[in-house]
Amino acid sequence: MKKLHLFILKNYLGPLTMTLFICLFILVMQFLWRYIDELVGKGLDFFVLLELLFYASMQVVPMALPLAILLASLMSFGNLGEHYELTAIKASGISLPRLMMPLILFTILTSIGAFWFSNNVLPVANLKLYSLLYDVKLAKPELEIKEKVFYDGIEDFSIKINDKDPKSNMLYDIMIYDNRDNLNKNSNVTLADSGKLQVAGNKAYMQLTIFDGVRFDEKVDTKHSRIKNRDKQRFRIDHFKKQVVIKKMEGYNLERTDEKLFTHSDKMKNYSQLRYDKDSLIKMRDTVIMNLSHQTKNAYFVKQAIEKQHKKEHYTPIDSSKQLNSDSLFQAIPNNIRANVISSALSMARRNKNTISDQMRSYINNYDDKINRHTIELHRKFTLSFACLIFFFIGAPLGAIIRKGGLGMPVVISVLFFIVYYIIDTFGAKMAREGVWPVYQGLWLSSAILFPVGVFLTYKSATDSPLLNSDAYVIFFKKLFRREKYDLTNRLDKEKKNNNN
Question: Which of 293, 295, 303, 291 is nearest to 345 (CA)?
Fold first, then answer.
Protein backbone atom coordinates (compact mmCIF):
# COMPACT_ATOMS: atom_id res chain seq x y z
CA MET A 1 0.00 0.00 0.00
CA LYS A 2 2.86 2.41 0.66
CA LYS A 3 4.10 2.05 -2.91
CA LEU A 4 0.58 2.60 -4.22
CA HIS A 5 0.14 5.71 -2.06
CA LEU A 6 3.48 7.07 -3.25
CA PHE A 7 2.43 6.36 -6.84
CA ILE A 8 -0.85 8.26 -6.36
CA LEU A 9 0.92 11.20 -4.68
CA LYS A 10 3.50 11.34 -7.47
CA ASN A 11 0.80 11.40 -10.14
CA TYR A 12 -1.02 14.16 -8.23
CA LEU A 13 1.80 16.50 -7.15
CA GLY A 14 3.16 16.94 -10.68
CA PRO A 15 -0.11 18.22 -12.20
CA LEU A 16 -0.81 20.27 -9.04
CA THR A 17 2.48 22.15 -9.30
CA MET A 18 2.04 22.73 -13.04
CA THR A 19 -1.58 23.89 -12.83
CA LEU A 20 -0.85 26.15 -9.84
CA PHE A 21 1.82 28.03 -11.81
CA ILE A 22 -0.45 28.20 -14.86
CA CYS A 23 -3.33 29.62 -12.81
CA LEU A 24 -1.02 32.11 -11.08
CA PHE A 25 0.35 33.24 -14.45
CA ILE A 26 -3.12 33.76 -15.93
CA LEU A 27 -4.43 35.66 -12.90
CA VAL A 28 -1.30 37.83 -12.68
CA MET A 29 -1.70 38.69 -16.37
CA GLN A 30 -5.27 39.71 -15.59
CA PHE A 31 -3.91 41.93 -12.81
CA LEU A 32 -1.43 43.54 -15.22
CA TRP A 33 -4.14 44.25 -17.81
CA ARG A 34 -6.19 45.88 -15.06
CA TYR A 35 -3.39 48.28 -14.04
CA ILE A 36 -1.54 48.54 -17.35
CA ASP A 37 -2.46 52.21 -17.84
CA GLU A 38 -0.95 53.16 -14.50
CA LEU A 39 2.28 51.21 -15.03
CA VAL A 40 3.23 52.11 -18.60
CA GLY A 41 5.45 55.13 -19.12
CA LYS A 42 6.43 55.60 -15.46
CA GLY A 43 10.02 54.43 -15.98
CA LEU A 44 9.74 51.97 -13.10
CA ASP A 45 12.82 50.09 -12.05
CA PHE A 46 13.03 46.37 -12.92
CA PHE A 47 13.16 45.39 -9.25
CA VAL A 48 10.07 47.50 -8.52
CA LEU A 49 8.15 45.68 -11.27
CA LEU A 50 9.43 42.35 -9.96
CA GLU A 51 8.28 43.26 -6.45
CA LEU A 52 4.88 44.29 -7.77
CA LEU A 53 4.43 41.01 -9.65
CA PHE A 54 5.49 38.99 -6.61
CA TYR A 55 2.94 40.65 -4.33
CA ALA A 56 0.28 40.36 -7.05
CA SER A 57 0.95 36.62 -7.34
CA MET A 58 0.57 36.29 -3.56
CA GLN A 59 -2.74 38.13 -3.71
CA VAL A 60 -4.27 35.83 -6.36
CA VAL A 61 -3.33 32.60 -4.53
CA PRO A 62 -6.84 32.34 -2.93
CA MET A 63 -8.30 32.05 -6.44
CA ALA A 64 -5.50 30.03 -8.04
CA LEU A 65 -5.11 27.32 -5.38
CA PRO A 66 -8.69 25.88 -5.45
CA LEU A 67 -8.70 25.95 -9.26
CA ALA A 68 -5.32 24.19 -9.36
CA ILE A 69 -6.54 21.49 -6.95
CA LEU A 70 -9.65 20.92 -9.05
CA LEU A 71 -7.69 20.70 -12.29
CA ALA A 72 -4.90 18.53 -10.82
CA SER A 73 -7.32 16.02 -9.26
CA LEU A 74 -9.26 15.81 -12.52
CA MET A 75 -6.07 15.23 -14.52
CA SER A 76 -4.50 12.67 -12.16
CA PHE A 77 -7.60 10.48 -11.75
CA GLY A 78 -8.54 10.99 -15.39
CA ASN A 79 -5.11 9.68 -16.43
CA LEU A 80 -5.52 6.66 -14.12
CA GLY A 81 -8.89 5.89 -15.65
CA GLU A 82 -7.79 6.50 -19.24
CA HIS A 83 -4.87 4.06 -18.93
CA TYR A 84 -7.03 1.46 -17.10
CA GLU A 85 -4.82 1.74 -14.02
CA LEU A 86 -7.83 2.70 -11.94
CA THR A 87 -9.68 -0.38 -13.18
CA ALA A 88 -6.74 -2.62 -12.23
CA ILE A 89 -6.54 -1.07 -8.76
CA LYS A 90 -10.27 -1.60 -8.17
CA ALA A 91 -10.01 -5.18 -9.49
CA SER A 92 -7.37 -5.91 -6.85
CA GLY A 93 -9.90 -5.10 -4.13
CA ILE A 94 -8.93 -1.49 -3.34
CA SER A 95 -11.91 0.88 -3.28
CA LEU A 96 -11.81 4.46 -4.53
CA PRO A 97 -12.15 6.07 -1.05
CA ARG A 98 -9.23 3.95 0.16
CA LEU A 99 -7.23 4.95 -2.90
CA MET A 100 -8.02 8.62 -2.28
CA MET A 101 -7.00 8.50 1.39
CA PRO A 102 -3.39 9.80 0.97
CA LEU A 103 -4.63 12.62 -1.27
CA ILE A 104 -7.39 13.43 1.24
CA LEU A 105 -4.79 13.77 3.99
CA PHE A 106 -2.60 15.87 1.71
CA THR A 107 -5.55 18.12 0.82
CA ILE A 108 -6.39 18.57 4.52
CA LEU A 109 -2.81 19.66 5.15
CA THR A 110 -3.06 21.97 2.13
CA SER A 111 -6.25 23.46 3.57
CA ILE A 112 -4.53 24.10 6.90
CA GLY A 113 -1.66 25.70 5.01
CA ALA A 114 -4.16 27.80 3.03
CA PHE A 115 -5.65 29.11 6.29
CA TRP A 116 -2.17 29.95 7.57
CA PHE A 117 -1.44 31.72 4.28
CA SER A 118 -4.69 33.73 4.45
CA ASN A 119 -4.07 34.67 8.06
CA ASN A 120 -0.35 35.51 8.01
CA VAL A 121 0.97 35.98 4.46
CA LEU A 122 -1.98 37.45 2.54
CA PRO A 123 -2.50 40.53 4.80
CA VAL A 124 1.19 41.45 4.48
CA ALA A 125 1.10 40.89 0.71
CA ASN A 126 -2.01 43.08 0.40
CA LEU A 127 -0.36 45.81 2.46
CA LYS A 128 2.79 45.77 0.33
CA LEU A 129 0.86 45.56 -2.95
CA TYR A 130 -1.64 48.36 -2.32
CA SER A 131 0.96 50.71 -0.83
CA LEU A 132 3.22 50.12 -3.85
CA LEU A 133 0.31 50.62 -6.27
CA TYR A 134 -0.57 53.85 -4.50
CA ASP A 135 3.00 55.12 -4.97
CA VAL A 136 3.00 54.06 -8.65
CA LYS A 137 -0.27 55.91 -9.25
CA LEU A 138 1.18 59.10 -7.77
CA ALA A 139 4.36 58.85 -9.85
CA LYS A 140 4.29 60.98 -12.98
CA PRO A 141 5.14 59.54 -16.40
CA GLU A 142 8.59 59.98 -17.84
CA LEU A 143 9.40 62.99 -19.96
CA GLU A 144 8.60 62.09 -23.55
CA ILE A 145 8.18 65.14 -25.76
CA LYS A 146 6.59 64.27 -29.11
CA GLU A 147 7.08 66.21 -32.29
CA LYS A 148 4.61 68.99 -33.27
CA VAL A 149 2.49 68.43 -30.16
CA PHE A 150 2.38 70.61 -27.04
CA TYR A 151 3.73 68.70 -24.04
CA ASP A 152 2.17 69.69 -20.67
CA GLY A 153 3.83 67.04 -18.51
CA ILE A 154 6.13 69.60 -16.85
CA GLU A 155 4.31 71.72 -14.31
CA ASP A 156 3.92 75.43 -15.27
CA PHE A 157 5.50 74.82 -18.71
CA SER A 158 4.15 73.90 -22.13
CA ILE A 159 6.73 72.80 -24.74
CA LYS A 160 6.40 72.17 -28.45
CA ILE A 161 9.13 70.98 -30.86
CA ASN A 162 9.09 70.35 -34.60
CA ASP A 163 11.87 67.79 -34.75
CA LYS A 164 14.28 65.81 -32.54
CA ASP A 165 17.31 63.58 -32.93
CA PRO A 166 16.93 60.33 -30.90
CA LYS A 167 20.70 59.65 -30.91
CA SER A 168 21.93 63.03 -29.64
CA ASN A 169 18.69 63.97 -27.80
CA MET A 170 18.75 67.33 -29.57
CA LEU A 171 15.47 69.23 -29.99
CA TYR A 172 14.85 71.62 -32.91
CA ASP A 173 12.52 74.57 -33.47
CA ILE A 174 11.44 74.89 -29.84
CA MET A 175 8.52 76.90 -28.44
CA ILE A 176 8.14 77.22 -24.66
CA TYR A 177 5.23 78.81 -22.76
CA ASP A 178 6.14 79.77 -19.18
CA ASN A 179 2.93 79.80 -17.07
CA ARG A 180 4.48 80.38 -13.66
CA ASP A 181 2.76 83.76 -13.54
CA ASN A 182 -0.80 82.80 -12.59
CA LEU A 183 -2.18 86.27 -13.35
CA ASN A 184 -0.88 86.47 -16.91
CA LYS A 185 -1.19 83.10 -18.60
CA ASN A 186 0.84 82.60 -21.79
CA SER A 187 2.49 86.00 -21.36
CA ASN A 188 6.02 84.56 -21.41
CA VAL A 189 6.99 82.83 -24.67
CA THR A 190 10.43 81.59 -25.69
CA LEU A 191 11.41 80.58 -29.23
CA ALA A 192 14.70 78.78 -29.82
CA ASP A 193 16.48 77.23 -32.76
CA SER A 194 17.62 74.10 -30.87
CA GLY A 195 18.10 72.71 -27.41
CA LYS A 196 18.78 69.70 -25.27
CA LEU A 197 16.75 68.25 -22.38
CA GLN A 198 18.55 66.39 -19.61
CA VAL A 199 17.20 64.81 -16.43
CA ALA A 200 19.27 64.01 -13.34
CA GLY A 201 19.89 60.34 -12.61
CA ASN A 202 17.62 60.42 -9.56
CA LYS A 203 14.92 62.33 -11.48
CA ALA A 204 15.14 65.18 -8.97
CA TYR A 205 16.01 67.98 -11.44
CA MET A 206 15.53 68.76 -15.13
CA GLN A 207 17.97 70.88 -17.14
CA LEU A 208 16.84 72.39 -20.45
CA THR A 209 19.61 74.08 -22.49
CA ILE A 210 18.41 76.11 -25.51
CA PHE A 211 20.43 77.93 -28.18
CA ASP A 212 19.91 80.95 -30.50
CA GLY A 213 16.53 82.14 -29.34
CA VAL A 214 14.35 85.04 -28.34
CA ARG A 215 12.18 85.50 -25.27
CA PHE A 216 8.99 87.60 -25.30
CA ASP A 217 7.74 88.75 -21.88
CA GLU A 218 4.47 90.67 -21.68
CA LYS A 219 3.21 91.80 -18.29
CA VAL A 220 -0.26 93.31 -18.63
CA ASP A 221 -1.91 95.09 -15.74
CA THR A 222 -5.41 93.69 -15.95
CA LYS A 223 -6.76 96.25 -13.46
CA HIS A 224 -6.03 99.14 -15.82
CA SER A 225 -6.77 98.26 -19.42
CA ARG A 226 -7.34 101.77 -20.80
CA ILE A 227 -4.97 103.42 -23.26
CA LYS A 228 -3.98 106.14 -20.81
CA ASN A 229 -2.58 103.45 -18.51
CA ARG A 230 -0.35 102.03 -21.30
CA ASP A 231 2.71 103.22 -19.43
CA LYS A 232 1.92 100.63 -16.75
CA GLN A 233 2.19 97.84 -19.29
CA ARG A 234 5.58 96.14 -19.67
CA PHE A 235 6.83 94.54 -22.87
CA ARG A 236 10.26 92.94 -22.99
CA ILE A 237 12.22 91.09 -25.68
CA ASP A 238 15.47 89.25 -24.90
CA HIS A 239 17.80 87.71 -27.47
CA PHE A 240 20.21 85.03 -26.31
CA LYS A 241 22.79 82.61 -27.65
CA LYS A 242 22.44 80.12 -24.84
CA GLN A 243 20.03 79.80 -21.95
CA VAL A 244 19.82 77.14 -19.23
CA VAL A 245 16.59 76.38 -17.37
CA ILE A 246 16.74 74.19 -14.25
CA LYS A 247 13.51 72.95 -12.69
CA LYS A 248 12.91 70.72 -9.72
CA MET A 249 11.09 67.52 -10.74
CA GLU A 250 8.50 66.57 -8.13
CA GLY A 251 6.61 63.30 -8.43
CA TYR A 252 8.64 61.85 -11.30
CA ASN A 253 10.64 59.57 -9.04
CA LEU A 254 8.92 56.70 -7.24
CA GLU A 255 8.70 57.69 -3.57
CA ARG A 256 7.61 55.04 -1.10
CA THR A 257 4.82 55.97 1.31
CA ASP A 258 4.80 54.81 4.91
CA GLU A 259 2.91 51.50 4.95
CA LYS A 260 1.36 52.31 8.33
CA LEU A 261 -1.10 54.59 6.51
CA PHE A 262 -2.74 51.50 4.94
CA THR A 263 -2.90 49.19 7.98
CA HIS A 264 -6.42 50.34 8.90
CA SER A 265 -7.96 48.45 5.97
CA ASP A 266 -9.64 45.12 6.74
CA LYS A 267 -7.66 43.35 3.99
CA MET A 268 -4.38 44.07 5.80
CA LYS A 269 -5.32 42.37 9.09
CA ASN A 270 -5.04 38.83 10.40
CA TYR A 271 -7.68 36.91 12.32
CA SER A 272 -6.87 38.26 15.80
CA GLN A 273 -6.61 41.85 14.55
CA LEU A 274 -9.94 41.54 12.75
CA ARG A 275 -11.64 40.20 15.90
CA TYR A 276 -10.15 42.92 18.10
CA ASP A 277 -10.98 45.77 15.70
CA LYS A 278 -14.48 44.41 15.10
CA ASP A 279 -15.21 44.41 18.84
CA SER A 280 -13.84 47.95 19.11
CA LEU A 281 -16.05 49.12 16.23
CA ILE A 282 -19.12 47.50 17.83
CA LYS A 283 -18.41 49.29 21.12
CA MET A 284 -17.99 52.64 19.37
CA ARG A 285 -21.21 52.15 17.43
CA ASP A 286 -23.10 51.21 20.61
CA THR A 287 -21.72 54.31 22.33
CA VAL A 288 -23.01 56.53 19.52
CA ILE A 289 -26.42 54.85 19.65
CA MET A 290 -26.58 55.23 23.45
CA ASN A 291 -25.72 58.93 23.28
CA LEU A 292 -28.29 59.41 20.54
CA SER A 293 -30.97 57.65 22.56
CA HIS A 294 -30.27 59.91 25.54
CA GLN A 295 -30.74 62.97 23.34
CA THR A 296 -34.06 61.78 21.91
CA LYS A 297 -35.62 59.83 24.79
CA ASN A 298 -39.42 59.46 24.99
CA ALA A 299 -41.52 62.36 26.24
CA TYR A 300 -38.43 64.59 26.57
CA PHE A 301 -40.00 67.47 24.67
CA VAL A 302 -43.30 67.17 26.54
CA LYS A 303 -41.59 67.25 29.93
CA GLN A 304 -39.46 70.26 29.02
CA ALA A 305 -42.39 72.22 27.67
CA ILE A 306 -44.54 71.55 30.74
CA GLU A 307 -41.75 72.35 33.16
CA LYS A 308 -41.13 75.68 31.46
CA GLN A 309 -44.83 76.55 31.52
CA HIS A 310 -45.22 75.42 35.13
CA LYS A 311 -42.36 77.69 36.17
CA LYS A 312 -44.14 80.59 34.49
CA GLU A 313 -47.54 79.78 36.02
CA HIS A 314 -46.02 78.88 39.43
CA TYR A 315 -47.24 75.29 39.31
CA THR A 316 -45.67 72.52 41.34
CA PRO A 317 -42.59 71.24 39.42
CA ILE A 318 -42.64 67.72 38.01
CA ASP A 319 -40.45 65.07 39.58
CA SER A 320 -38.15 64.07 36.66
CA SER A 321 -37.07 60.86 38.41
CA LYS A 322 -40.53 59.34 38.00
CA GLN A 323 -41.81 57.81 34.77
CA LEU A 324 -43.99 60.30 32.91
CA ASN A 325 -47.28 59.51 31.20
CA SER A 326 -47.82 61.58 28.07
CA ASP A 327 -51.64 61.44 28.17
CA SER A 328 -51.91 62.55 31.81
CA LEU A 329 -49.39 65.32 31.26
CA PHE A 330 -51.28 66.57 28.23
CA GLN A 331 -54.57 66.62 30.19
CA ALA A 332 -52.89 68.58 33.00
CA ILE A 333 -51.87 71.38 30.61
CA PRO A 334 -54.18 74.41 30.72
CA ASN A 335 -56.27 74.90 27.57
CA ASN A 336 -54.77 78.29 26.78
CA ILE A 337 -51.23 76.93 26.32
CA ARG A 338 -51.92 73.54 24.73
CA ALA A 339 -51.43 74.87 21.21
CA ASN A 340 -48.01 76.27 22.11
CA VAL A 341 -46.97 72.99 23.75
CA ILE A 342 -48.07 70.97 20.69
CA SER A 343 -46.20 73.32 18.34
CA SER A 344 -43.07 73.08 20.50
CA ALA A 345 -43.35 69.30 20.64
CA LEU A 346 -43.69 69.02 16.84
CA SER A 347 -40.73 71.30 16.31
CA MET A 348 -38.55 69.27 18.67
CA ALA A 349 -39.72 65.98 17.13
CA ARG A 350 -38.67 67.17 13.68
CA ARG A 351 -35.35 68.31 15.13
CA ASN A 352 -34.81 64.90 16.73
CA LYS A 353 -35.71 63.16 13.49
CA ASN A 354 -33.13 65.20 11.58
CA THR A 355 -30.54 64.49 14.29
CA ILE A 356 -31.16 60.75 14.06
CA SER A 357 -30.96 60.84 10.25
CA ASP A 358 -27.69 62.79 10.35
CA GLN A 359 -26.21 60.45 12.93
CA MET A 360 -27.29 57.42 10.90
CA ARG A 361 -25.67 58.79 7.77
CA SER A 362 -22.52 60.11 9.39
CA TYR A 363 -21.61 57.55 12.04
CA ILE A 364 -23.86 54.54 12.52
CA ASN A 365 -24.00 53.44 8.86
CA ASN A 366 -20.25 53.98 8.58
CA TYR A 367 -19.62 51.80 11.63
CA ASP A 368 -22.01 49.14 10.31
CA ASP A 369 -20.18 49.07 6.97
CA LYS A 370 -16.78 48.67 8.65
CA ILE A 371 -18.11 45.95 10.97
CA ASN A 372 -19.62 44.16 7.98
CA ARG A 373 -16.34 44.26 6.04
CA HIS A 374 -14.35 42.97 9.01
CA THR A 375 -16.84 40.11 9.40
CA ILE A 376 -16.52 39.26 5.71
CA GLU A 377 -12.74 39.08 5.97
CA LEU A 378 -13.04 36.87 9.05
CA HIS A 379 -15.14 34.36 7.11
CA ARG A 380 -12.84 34.56 4.07
CA LYS A 381 -10.00 33.18 6.20
CA PHE A 382 -11.92 29.89 6.30
CA THR A 383 -13.72 29.81 2.93
CA LEU A 384 -10.41 29.38 1.06
CA SER A 385 -9.49 26.30 3.13
CA PHE A 386 -12.92 24.77 2.69
CA ALA A 387 -12.92 25.52 -1.05
CA CYS A 388 -9.73 23.44 -1.42
CA LEU A 389 -11.49 20.43 0.12
CA ILE A 390 -14.66 20.90 -1.95
CA PHE A 391 -12.81 21.16 -5.26
CA PHE A 392 -10.77 18.06 -4.48
CA PHE A 393 -13.90 16.03 -3.75
CA ILE A 394 -15.39 17.32 -7.01
CA GLY A 395 -12.31 16.81 -9.19
CA ALA A 396 -11.08 13.40 -8.00
CA PRO A 397 -14.36 11.44 -8.40
CA LEU A 398 -15.23 13.34 -11.58
CA GLY A 399 -11.86 12.39 -13.09
CA ALA A 400 -12.47 8.77 -12.15
CA ILE A 401 -15.89 8.93 -13.84
CA ILE A 402 -14.98 10.64 -17.12
CA ARG A 403 -11.61 8.79 -17.42
CA LYS A 404 -10.00 11.49 -19.55
CA GLY A 405 -6.57 12.90 -18.71
CA GLY A 406 -4.39 15.61 -20.18
CA LEU A 407 -5.32 19.28 -20.52
CA GLY A 408 -8.37 18.87 -22.75
CA MET A 409 -11.56 17.76 -21.07
CA PRO A 410 -10.27 18.41 -17.50
CA VAL A 411 -9.55 22.05 -18.31
CA VAL A 412 -13.03 22.60 -19.77
CA ILE A 413 -14.79 20.98 -16.81
CA SER A 414 -12.56 22.76 -14.27
CA VAL A 415 -13.18 26.16 -15.83
CA LEU A 416 -16.95 25.55 -15.89
CA PHE A 417 -17.02 24.52 -12.23
CA PHE A 418 -14.80 27.42 -11.23
CA ILE A 419 -16.94 29.94 -13.13
CA VAL A 420 -20.03 28.65 -11.33
CA TYR A 421 -18.20 28.85 -8.00
CA TYR A 422 -16.89 32.37 -8.72
CA ILE A 423 -20.29 33.71 -9.81
CA ILE A 424 -22.05 32.29 -6.74
CA ASP A 425 -19.29 33.51 -4.42
CA THR A 426 -19.31 37.01 -5.93
CA PHE A 427 -23.10 37.21 -5.69
CA GLY A 428 -23.13 36.03 -2.07
CA ALA A 429 -20.31 38.41 -1.08
CA LYS A 430 -22.17 41.31 -2.67
CA MET A 431 -25.36 40.46 -0.79
CA ALA A 432 -23.40 40.22 2.46
CA ARG A 433 -21.48 43.47 1.80
CA GLU A 434 -24.69 45.40 1.14
CA GLY A 435 -26.34 43.99 4.24
CA VAL A 436 -29.11 42.18 2.34
CA TRP A 437 -28.06 38.79 3.74
CA PRO A 438 -26.21 37.86 6.91
CA VAL A 439 -22.48 37.58 6.30
CA TYR A 440 -22.28 33.85 6.96
CA GLN A 441 -25.00 33.14 4.40
CA GLY A 442 -23.38 35.23 1.67
CA LEU A 443 -19.82 34.00 2.21
CA TRP A 444 -20.70 30.32 2.57
CA LEU A 445 -23.32 30.21 -0.19
CA SER A 446 -20.96 28.80 -2.83
CA SER A 447 -19.62 26.17 -0.43
CA ALA A 448 -23.14 25.16 0.61
CA ILE A 449 -24.12 24.64 -3.05
CA LEU A 450 -20.98 22.84 -4.26
CA PHE A 451 -20.39 20.66 -1.19
CA PRO A 452 -23.43 18.42 -1.91
CA VAL A 453 -22.19 18.17 -5.52
CA GLY A 454 -18.85 16.84 -4.26
CA VAL A 455 -20.57 14.33 -1.96
CA PHE A 456 -22.82 13.16 -4.81
CA LEU A 457 -19.92 12.73 -7.26
CA THR A 458 -17.85 10.88 -4.65
CA TYR A 459 -20.73 8.49 -3.97
CA LYS A 460 -21.35 7.89 -7.67
CA SER A 461 -17.69 7.26 -8.34
CA ALA A 462 -17.31 4.90 -5.34
CA THR A 463 -20.29 2.85 -6.60
CA ASP A 464 -18.98 2.75 -10.20
CA SER A 465 -21.99 4.63 -11.51
CA PRO A 466 -21.92 5.35 -15.28
CA LEU A 467 -22.83 8.95 -14.62
CA LEU A 468 -20.97 10.49 -17.57
CA ASN A 469 -20.72 7.40 -19.75
CA SER A 470 -22.38 8.17 -23.08
CA ASP A 471 -22.88 4.50 -23.90
CA ALA A 472 -24.96 4.02 -20.76
CA TYR A 473 -27.31 6.85 -21.79
CA VAL A 474 -27.57 5.47 -25.36
CA ILE A 475 -28.53 2.03 -24.02
CA PHE A 476 -31.04 3.60 -21.61
CA PHE A 477 -32.83 5.57 -24.33
CA LYS A 478 -32.82 2.54 -26.66
CA LYS A 479 -34.52 0.47 -23.99
CA LEU A 480 -36.94 3.29 -23.31
CA PHE A 481 -37.94 3.70 -26.98
CA ARG A 482 -38.12 -0.08 -27.47
CA ARG A 483 -40.48 -0.36 -24.52
CA GLU A 484 -42.65 2.48 -25.80
CA LYS A 485 -42.75 0.88 -29.23
CA TYR A 486 -43.76 -2.46 -27.70
CA ASP A 487 -46.51 -0.79 -25.63
CA LEU A 488 -47.79 1.05 -28.71
CA THR A 489 -47.91 -2.18 -30.76
CA ASN A 490 -49.88 -3.97 -28.03
CA ARG A 491 -52.31 -1.09 -27.77
CA LEU A 492 -52.91 -1.07 -31.54
CA ASP A 493 -53.45 -4.84 -31.55
CA LYS A 494 -56.02 -4.58 -28.77
CA GLU A 495 -57.88 -1.79 -30.56
CA LYS A 496 -57.91 -3.87 -33.78
CA LYS A 497 -59.38 -6.89 -31.96
CA ASN A 498 -62.05 -4.74 -30.35
CA ASN A 499 -63.01 -3.28 -33.72
CA ASN A 500 -63.32 -6.78 -35.25
CA ASN A 501 -65.53 -7.92 -32.41
Answer: 303
Q: 175 forms bridges with which residues in the sheet?
A: 160, 191
Helix (H, G, I), strand (E, B) or coil at 226: coil
The answer to whether residues 454 and 390 touch, using CB atoms and an 8 Å cutoff, is yes
CA distances 81 to 78, 100, 300, 319, 389, Å, are 5, 14, 78, 87, 22
Q: How many Cα neighbours within 13 Å face the side chain of 394? A: 27
Four-point Cα dihedral 109, 110, 115, 121, nearest 10: 120
Instruction: Spell out the per-residue pLDDT of the chain, length 501, in tens.
Output: 578 888 888 889 988 999 999 999 989 998 888 888 777 766 677 888 899 899 999 999 988 999 999 999 988 888 888 888 888 888 888 888 888 888 999 999 999 999 999 999 999 999 998 888 888 876 665 566 788 888 877 777 888 888 888 777 788 998 888 877 655 666 788 899 988 877 765 666 777 888 988 888 876 555 555 545 555 556 778 888 888 877 776 655 556 677 777 788 888 899 999 999 999 999 988 887 887 777 666 544 445 544 555 554 444 444 544 555 666 766 777 777 777 777 777 777 777 777 777 766 667 778 888 899 999 999 999 998 899 999 999 988 888 888 777 777 778 888 888 889 889 999 999 999 888 889 989 999 999 999 998 888 888 887 776 665 555 556 656 666 666 666 666 676 677 667 765
Stated pTM of the model: 0.69
CA distance 284 to 278: 10
Which domains are delineated in the chain?
2-139+379-462 (no CATH), 157-248 (2.30.30), 272-377 (no CATH)
DSSP 228: G
Q: How far apart are CA 407 and CA 399, in angstroms?
A: 12
- Inter-residue contact 364 to 285 (CB < 8 Å): yes
DSSP string, 158-205: EEEEEEEETTTTEEEEEEEEE---SSSTT-EEEEEEEEEEEE-TTSSE
